[in-house]
Design a protein that fits this description.
heterodimer, A: 259 residues, mainly alpha, Ferritin, 11 helices, 0% strand, globular, B: 314 residues, 13 helices, 68% helix, binds fe (ii) ion
Chain lengths: 259, 314
């Protein structure tokens, strides 16, 4: 039973999902790239740049795919540079400022834990295009979480100061995590069709990864209830506007130009 | 008199040794050779690291995702270059921490070019095309320098620098073939970067302090003016291809094939080296901030490693 209206809404849902994947990579990569030359050691500059590059690479593939699904001739650049705040579909977590190194690592770990759970499931998607992109991304993401979880343990169990900073980061960022599990427009349809895993499955897997690594990092367990009772954070924060102002200014100044 | 003769003989012996093949870290070497190399390599390493600043500041504003990815990878390469070079210098008995201390204290120098600002996107093209281009001209001969670790680091680095130069040229090409505003951006950028790039090769031959000894030791293989001329000869035809005007309207000498350049404002060069360029303060401030902000992370990392080691020993 696939009526015309369901076909249209399926396409719309696929478009939205691909955009969300692309936007998460693009915005988080933007944040990470701001670390280049700022880290505590050159090795870490290089490591963070690597993750930023992977995320940007994944973002480009998802945004290009979104453009093809939409079928109106918009490519990765049109989608990245010529959409406004309200059309961006990434998590509020991804746009949060870098803060100190503990904050950046916490943000990355909380994101990686969901992203890995998602991409591993998405690799088996009924949608061949999604499955192909997910397989590539999963491999990279398993490196990312190895990096972020190792730093969680190092900072959590390092000195009293590093533990304090990591705790503060958890306190600051856990409140945005509910936003990673809001089922957005069309996602329920995609889950029903076996295209993407349901938010509940991801939520459970994320919770167990986070609990484990928090315990290994000498942090109190995350308060699951507090996370889930914050659906208001499904939207964006004021930080997004500044990110876009910086990222989009040049192409918007010369909208017809080729670079 | 006898003492001087002995010193001359030792120096001649070392120069003969240098002619035979690479000097390696464990080999005997004159103190002056070691000190000069440490200064030269650490200065080079600092340049790679400080050089991340002007370009890094455009990653978040690159005008296409493809350009953004290329620039991010490029600046990451530069971090890697710094790492190789600090590592090569460490084989001579110094440490990265000590070299960093000297940079932050203003005791060590880095290339004066990075004290100029990257104002527009075209500057990212000009830096890749001109600055990485000049780096290649300076560094290709060093792949054959006398100190093994330095020569090998240069071989790895030069491969990547030639990518960078091509990518920089590609940015300029897109601008040069683009809209009027883009062409103007490109020309303006060449105008601003040309002379500072010519200064990258150092003062004119007559005024270069360390040259003669370094050439005998094979840690400098060509004179500053020779390298500068090579660079001009490489860039002028490329600029013509881009339909950009090189400042000073270079003329080709029929006999030698060399393009003319200059005059170069050496007063400005000395001033920038002395700390008075447009960005010296910002560059050092950024390095100091990274060092200070990172202190607690390095401490945590060390404490964690120690605990881990103790646990394993127990
Ligand atoms: Fe370099
Ligand atoms: Fe380079």
């Amino acid at each position: 039973m696939s009526s015309i209206s369901e076909k249209i809404s399926l396409r719309r849902a696929r478009f939205d999902f691909a955009l969300r994947m692309g936007d998460n990579g693009l915005i988080l990569s933007h944040r990470l790239s701001q670390w280049l030359g700022r880290a505590h050691a050159i090795e870490e500059d290089i490591a963070l740049a690597n993750i930023a590059l992977d995320l940007l690479g994944q973002a480009r593939l998802w945004l290009s795919l979104a453009g093809r699904i939409e079928g109106r001739g918009r490519g990765e650049d049109a989608l990245a540079f010529f959409r406004g705040e309200s059309d961006f579909r990434h998590f509020a977590l991804a746009e949060q400022p870098n803060g100190d190194f503990a904050r950046t690592i916490m943000r990355q770990f909380l994101f990686d834990a969901r992203q890995l759970a998602l991409l591993e499931k998405l690799g088996e998607s009924a949608d061949k295009e999604f499955a192909a992109l997910a397989a590539k991304g999963a491999k990279e993401t398993s490196y990312h979480i190895r990096h972020s979880a190792a730093w969680m343990r190092r900072l959590g169990c390092g000195t009293a100061e590093s533990n304090r900073r990591l705790k503060e980061a958890a306190e600051e960022l856990l409140r945005f995590c509910g936003g990673m599990f809001c089922e957005e427009r069309g996602e329920e349809l995609l889950a029903r069709r076996g295209v993407i895993p349901s938010a509940d499955i991801l939520r459970a897997q994320w919770q167990s990864t986070v609990e484990q690594v928090f315990a290994e990092s000498d942090l109190p367990p995350p308060d699951a209830k507090a996370i889930d009772s914050r659906p208001s954070f499904c939207g964006h924060t004021e930080h997004l506007g500044y990110i876009l102002a910086e990222m989009q200014s040049l192409p918007r100044l010369h909208p017809q130009a080729k670079w | 008199m006898r003492k001087k003769n002995a010193a001359d003989a030792a120096d001649a012996a070392f120069c003969a040794r240098v002619a035979e093949g690479f000097v390696e870290p464990g080999d005997a070497m004159p103190d002056g050779y070691r000190a000069t190399l440490i200064r030269q390599m650490s200065q080079h390493a600092h340049s790679e690291i400080v050089g991340m600043e002007p370009e890094g500041n455009w990653i978040t504003r690159a005008p296409s995702l493809r350009r953004k990815a290329i620039l991010l990878a490029k600046v990451q390469d530069e971090a890697g270059h710094g790492l190789y070079l600090y590592g090569a210098a460490e084989t001579l008995g110094t440490t990265r921490a000590e070299m960093t201390r000297q940079l932050l204290a203003g005791e060590a120098k880095y290339s004066s070019i990075f004290n100029y600002p990257a104002l527009t996107w075209a500057d990212i093209g000009a830096i890749g095309w001109l600055v990485d281009g000049a780096a290649i001209i300076n560094q290709v001969p060093l792949c054959r320098c006398s100190f093994g670790p330095y020569a090998r680091a240069m071989q790895r680095i030069c491969k990547e620098e030639s990518f960078h130069q091509r990518q920089g040229f590609e940015i300029m090409l897109a601008l040069a073939r683009g809209e009027k505003a883009q062409r103007e951006m490109a020309q303006n950028s060449l105008n601003r970067w040309w002379e500072p790039t010519l200064m990258m090769f150092g003062p004119p031959d007559g005024e270069s302090r360390h040259s003669a000894q370094s050439m005998r030791w094979k840690i400098k293989l060509h004179s500053n003016d020779e390298l500068r001329q090579r660079f001009v000869n490489m860039i002028v035809p490329q600029a013509r291809y881009l339909k950009l005007r090189v400042p000073g309207s270079p003329k080709k000498d029929r006999r030698t094939g060399d393009y003319s350049y200059g005059p170069i404002n050496w007063e400005e060069f000395r001033n920038v080296i002395a700390g008075n360029g447009p960005c010296n303060r910002d560059r050092l401030r950024a390095r100091k901030k990274a060092e200070e902000d990172g202190k607690w992370v390095r401490e945590a990392s060390a404490a964690f490693a120690k605990k881990h080691l103790e646990r394993r020993a127990a």
